[in-house]
Each structure stands twice: as C-alpha cells, then as structure tokens.
Design brief:
By secondary structure, this protein is α/β, with parallel strands linked by helices. 29% of the residues lie in helices and 23% in strands. The structure holds adenosine-5'-diphosphate and zinc ion. The site of adenosine-5'-diphosphate has 15 residues, from helix 7.
Length: 731
C-alpha cells in the first residue's frame, strides 16, 4: 500500500506537494510528474493529506544518490522561514546540479580477452594472413604488454602508457583483440591529512589554536580577531586539522573574490592535498563531481563561496567564515540571505562549532561578543614582528592635484621614492573603467543608462560606455544625443584606467599593471597578473577592491588610496563601517614582510571619524563611536530592518499597489514603516522600483509582521516583490 508523501520540489512554489510512493524515506531524491513534465524532488515527510489519496499521482522513480541529510533539510526549512523565501527556492540552492543526482558515470576501459591474456604472440609464430592476429605490430605488442602487467585502462590511459596513438587501441578493440569493461570513476579529491605537520606556531597563535580545538566538541560561535598578517589562517588550519583527525568534514567559506590560488596552495602545503572547491567559476562537470563527493563524504574539506553552505554534508564538524565582515556574504538576488548569519544557524542546528574570522569584525559580531553569545580569541601582533604600516591622511584641500589629475604632489613623491628603492606600490581606487561620468560640455547632458537610474561608465580600453548595474553597453556617439554638438564630450572623474594613464605619464619607466574584477580574460588573467607581481615584474599596481583580498605581496611597501571618501558618500547605514573595513584591509597590503610599509589616504575630509581612526590605528575607538551612533538611531545591530522592494514595468500599477500596501502597513510600539519611496535606483533593468523599510525593535521578529502584511494585499502577476530581511543594500 503506497503512502502519501510530501515532496519538496526545487522551485519557487509555496510549499511541498503530496505524491504516492512506496519504500521511500525522508531525504530520498525522487522523480515525480509535474503537469506534463517530470521533475526531481526530495521526500520531505509524510503527506499533508490536503488532497484525497485517490487524486494523488505516484512517484516515478527513486534516484541512486545519497539522501539529503536531515540537518540539511531542517536547515532549508529554517532559512526559508527566516528569509521568507519559498522552501523550494532554498532547496534549489542545495541541489544546484541535478546531474549530480544521476549515478556516477562508469569509465569505459579495456582489458585483454581471457584467452589472450596469458600468451604474447612471438614474432614468427603469428597466425595465417587475414586473421586479426596477423596484424601484430610493435605498437600492438606494447599495448598488450601494458595490459598484461596492470589493470584495465581507458583508451587514452592505455595509449599514453604504451606510447602509441589512440587509433592503435581503437583498431585493436574493433578487431576483437581487447575486451570492454566498465570501471567506477576514480576518487576526484585527495585526502587532506590532519596529521600533516604545520608550521611552528608563536605562543599567541598556539594559545588561540589550543583554545579553538578544546572547544570543538561543544559547538558555539567563536570570533578569531587579529590584525592582517597575524596568522589567523594558520590558526584556523589547526582547527581544520583537528576536525580531520576526528574524521569529520570541514567547510571554509571565503568571499568569492578572496578564493585565490594563493589560498589553495597554502592549504595544499599544510594538508598535502587540495580541498574541494565550490564557486561560480566551476564547470558543470566540476560542480557535479564536487557535489557528489561532498554528499558521499569523500570530500573532507570544502572551500567555497557563500552558496557552499547549502551543500549536503553528511558529517560537517566545523564551519569557518573567513573575512566574516565582508558584504559579499550577503546574497541579494533570489533568496536574500546573509551567509555568515546562516552559517551560525547551520552550526547551531548541528551543534557544530562556527568560527568567524576577521581583522575588522562586523558590528553585529562584536555586539554578540560583548553580549557573551560568542567567544572571542585575539591575535594582537603580526607574525615574525612585521610592523603595521604607518597610515597618513593627505588633505586634498591643501595638497592639490593638478587640473584633470588625481594624484596629489605628496602621493606622487612617495611613489617616486618607493619606485626608486626598487619596491612595489599599489594605487587603490574602487572604480572600474576610465571615468564614471561622461557629459556634454556644450549642454551639460549626462550619458545615462536607458534601463537604470545610473550613469554610463566609460571603458576606454574596450571603447565602450557601460552600465555597471545591468550590463548595457554602447559606443560613445560622435555627437551629443541632446544638443547634437559633435566632439563635445568630457570625461568626469577618475576610474582605474584613467589613473593608469596618469601614472604612465608620470613614471614612464615603471612597469604598471591594472587589476580589476572585469579584467579581460577573467580569473585566469587575474591570476597571471598576481604571479607577475609576486615575481616583481610589476612596479606599480593599480586596482579596485579585488586587490584588497587575500593576497600577500612581500615587496609592496606603499599603498595610495586615491579617493578615501568614495565609500562614505553613499550615506547608507553601513557606509562608515564598510569604508573603515575596506581601507583597513587595503592598508594591510603594505609592508607584510621585513619591509615597513606606509599608507597615504587622499581625502577632502581628514576629520571624518573613519579617516581619523585609520590614521591613529584606533579600531576600537572607531567601533565604540559607530556603535554609539547605531544605538542612538536604533539601527542594526541595535534594531532590526527588513526591506520590501516592489518592481514592475508598469509605472502606474506599481504606485497603486504601493499605496495599498502603505494603507495596511504594520504598526505598533517599536514598529515603524518607512515608504513607499522610489528606490535610489528607481529604474533598474527597465523596471520601476519602490521600497518600504520596516524598522523594529530588536525583540520583535519582522517575519510574522511581513507575512500578515502581505496577506492583506493581492499582488498583480506583473509585479515582483522582493523581501530582504537584514538588508545591506539600500539601492
Ligand atoms: P592572517 O590570516 O591573519 O592575515 P596569515 O595566516 O595569512 O595571517 O599569516 C600571514 C603570513 O605569515 C603568511 O605568509 C603566513 O604563512 C605567515 N605565518 C603566520 N604564522 C606563521 C607561523 N607560525 N610560522 C610561519 N609562518 C607564519
Ligand atoms: Zn543599466
């Protein structure tokens, strides 16, 4: 008698569906009919009974894949409840490679037919002409010899080992001289070794590592707080080693941009094998084999970007969130979640320790430490006595760059000295392209994106104007589209390409490299540039925030921040915190080895608390100041925020719905709803956008308020609504 089962499908639908099935357990992957097609789903539990059993369709098949672990299923439900996303949309993140659910593909291989295996034909003793054996050649003999000594091999392995072309193997197979067999695939991942010897730790590092290891069994959250270069990575590697020794899996989350070859090499040196990787650059086949190896437990350590949190680990024993303050952990598209917070949830569900690592922890984390909910470990000094760089502000109101130039005389002379000493310098500007704004000198017309409330950014190398929000591209027209004047365009403000032009004119002998996330040639060419810097084939590096993360350049002694005020202008909740973290991290690139470093911050506002704290190396002073500001405004981490973003191609319809929502907005003590307001990006990818911001007291959960709110209004089908709990972007 088949049972009624709730099956969750990896689709943004309201909930699970009931099906009939036999001999199935929660977590099993199954194929079910959905309308006219078939789809893969996961058995979630007993049927809801909402549909009569005689109306239910039956499960078509059970897939030969490890079932989705119970913890992963509970995690999916909890993430869905917290983010207000449909559980199926969260499930989709956990099974993002449906091909991994097929049984592993067997490898086609060859061996000698049983009769032939024990006789190598001797020259001169060959059979009659016309028989297969008559075509015996030295090449064929080598193929036989290889198979006689070893196991079955694939066509390409066999050809390589015998030193023959694959054609020889194929011809032998066609002539019946070889027998086909299928072999299971070889393990795709090495085994990182928890007993492999690491470096000798300093006393402070050893204390931190021992404390971490001592607490591995009790779960809980620990902040590992230490300046850049203090050995945080070495210390958390010790916790990974202990987890491996305990026979459990470990997950290390890194911001995608920090997932560099350097980190992987370090890991391999420390553990004798590479970890499994999980990020957006994997090919379909790599994704498939990583997912499968994680699900079967073959992969012991996984390093990945935020989505790795949803992988189906059967026995996760440790979660590390490196650079925990990074905004990259917040996903905005689709399911809006903060991976650091969800990592804490994942750890809590499995009673597994979570380690948050940073030189500039987020205010959220620091508040949890202050409240006693998280433990904290400190590494106060750089390893091997390397000094922290000296940070100075360059007041651009006094030390003015020349017209249409961006480098102050003070920064130029520091660059001169550094280059003269044969050391490397970095100019940091978090702006891709040549110029952020192109305007007509004649009529003042600004070149805007047709789909977004945004200026088009000139990319001179590519010869294009680009929108950094939707990817729209166009050639710069001959004449102004507004007034028709030809050749009237002026580039306003600098991007990194423009800085490269300025420095090339100032230092014609210097070898200059540009490093941005949109560098032509993608991650491979970024890696090549990093190698060139490490080999000291570059004197001056100009880069966006991609240079700030995870690279150690021992010869780099000067960092010039071209526009330290840039991130402060946006004025959102975390502008000051984020700018402090980013500039602190960029500054940390200077003087990492024996050489002392210096950092110059070009600013029009040297009295700004962020700049002052960076100059005085007073992180704790800055945090105290910023915490007080947040507390006074009841902003996170002292209050809660949630955003509702409406978008539609219909400009009138969207305002009607926004007014309706405003009428029935939640209210009460400790609850405030702001909006509807046109979003700063009021037009994005051709859709109009309106925002609400729900602000509530720390002890009030926003989710039930929002659920009740949305139940009161019927949203038309052409309108999209995104709920963002704990928003980080206010655009
Ligand atoms: P963080 O993660 O705090 O920035 P790292 O772990 O990357 O610091 O250490 C900075 C540099 O110092 C790295 O090159 C690392 O290999 C080296 N280092 C740190 N601790 C040790 C140690 N105990 N022995 C040898 N080298 C170390
Ligand atoms: Zn656009």
């Amino acid at each position: 008698m088949p049972d009624s089962l709730a099956i969750l499908l990896p689709l943004p639908l309201a909930g699970s569906y009931d099906y009939l099935g036999e001999n199935l357990a929660p977590g099993d992957f199954v194929v079910v009919p959905l309308g006219k097609r078939e789809t893969i789903g996961v058995v979630w539990g007993p049927g809801t009974g909402e549909v009569a059993a005689n109306k239910l369709k039956a499960v078509i098949a059970k897939l030969d894949a490890p079932p989705l672990p119970e913890i992963t299923r509970r995690f999916i439900d909890r993430v869905a409840a917290y983010t207000l996303a449909p559980p199926g949309a969260v499930l989709r993140m956990a099974m993002s490679v449906s091909t991994a659910l097929e049984p592993p593909r067997m490898i086609a291989a060859w061996r000698l037919p049983a009769a032939a295996a024990d006789q190598i034909p001797v020259p001169g003793e060959m059979g009659a002409p016309g028989q297969a054996a008559a075509k015996e050649t030295p090449a064929r003999r080598r193929v036989r010899a290889v198979l006689q000594q070893g196991p079955a091999r694939s066509t390409s392995d066999l050809a390589r080992e015998a030193g023959v072309g694959t054609g020889v193997v194929r011809a032998m197979a066609a002539a019946g001289l070889l027998e086909a067999v299928s072999l299971p695939p070889l393990p795709a991942f090495g085994r990182p070794d928890g007993f492999h010897e690491g470096p000798a730790l300093s006393p402070a590092q050893r204390d931190a590592a021992e404390s971490l290891i001592a607490h591995l069994a009790d779960g809980g959250v620990t902040l590992l707080d230490g300046v850049t270069g203090s050995g945080k990575t070495e210390v958390y590697f010790e916790a990974v080693a202990a987890t491996l020794r305990a026979g459990r899996q470990a997950l290390v989350l890194l911001p995608e941009i920090a997932l560099t070859g350097q980190w992987l090499e370090r890991f391999e040196q420390r553990f004798g094998a590479r970890p499994a990787e999980w990020h957006s650059d994997l090919t379909g086949a790599e994704r498939r084999s990583a997912w499968r190896a994680i699900a079967t437990g073959e992969a012991r350590v996984v390093v990945g970007a935020r989505s790795a949190l949803f992988l189906p680990f059967p026995d996760l024993g440790l979660v590390i969130v490196d650079e925990e303050h990074e905004q990259a952990y917040k996903q905005e598209d689709g399911v809006a979640y903060q991976a650091r917070d969800m990592a804490v949830l994942r750890g809590h569900l499995a009673r597994v320790p979570v380690l948050l690592v940073s030189a500039t922890p987020s205010l959220e984390t620091l508040k949890n430490v202050a409240g006693g909910r998280y433990r904290a470990l400190h590494l106060p000094d750089r390893h091997a006595g390397a000094a922290l760089p000296k940070v100075r502000a360059v007041d651009l109101r006094r030390d003015r760059p020349a017209r249409q130039r961006w480098l102050s005389p003070g920064l130029v002379s520091a660059l001169e000295e550094t280059l003269a000493q044969g050391e490397q310098a970095l100019l940091f500007l978090n702006r891709r392209g040549y110029a952020p704004l192109t305007l007509c000198r004649h009529c003042g017309h600004r070149m805007n994106c047709p789909n977004c409330t945004a200026w088009l950014v000139e990319h001179r190398h590519a010869g294009r104007l680009q929108c950094h929000h939707c990817g729209y591209q166009a050639r710069l027209p001959e004449a102004c589209p507004a007034c028709g004047t030809a050749g009237s365009f002026a580039a306003c403000g600098p991007g990194v390409e423009r800085l490269a032009e300025e420095t090339a004119a100032l230092f014609p002998a210097a070898r200059i490299a540009l490093l941005t996330s949109d560098t032509l040639g993608g991650p491979r060419s970024v890696a090549l540039t990093i190698d060139r810097i490490l080999r000291h084939e570059v004197d001056l590096l100009i880069g966006t925030q991609i240079v700030a993360k995870g690279h150690h350049f021992p010869m780099l002694t000067l960092v010039g921040v071209v526009d330290a005020d840039l991130g402060l202008n946006g004025g959102d909740l975390r502008a000051a915190e984020r700018t402090f973290q980013l500039l602190h991290q960029v500054a940390g690139r200077a003087g990492r080895a024996e050489r002392a470093g210096q950092v110059l911050l070009q600013t029009y506002d040297p009295e700004n608390p962020v700049i002052r704290a960076l100059v005085a190396d007073d992180r704790d002073g800055f945090i105290a100041y910023e915490m007080a500001e947040r507390r006074a405004a009841s902003m996170p981490p002292y209050g809660r925020l949630a955003a509702l973003i409406l978008s539609s191609a219909d400009a009138d319809g969207i305002d009607r719905i926004a007014r309706e929502l405003a009428r029935v907005a939640p209210s009460g003590p400790g609850i405030l709803v702001l909006g509807p307001a046109p979003a700063p990006l009021a037009l994005l990818r051709g859709r109009y956008r309106r925002r609400f911001l729900l602000k509530c007291r720390r002890d009030i959960a926003p989710q039930p308020l929002i659920r009740a709110w949305l139940a009161k209004v019927k949203l038309p089908g052409n309108l999209r609504l995104q709920v963002d709990i704990d928003p980080y972007s206010f655009l």
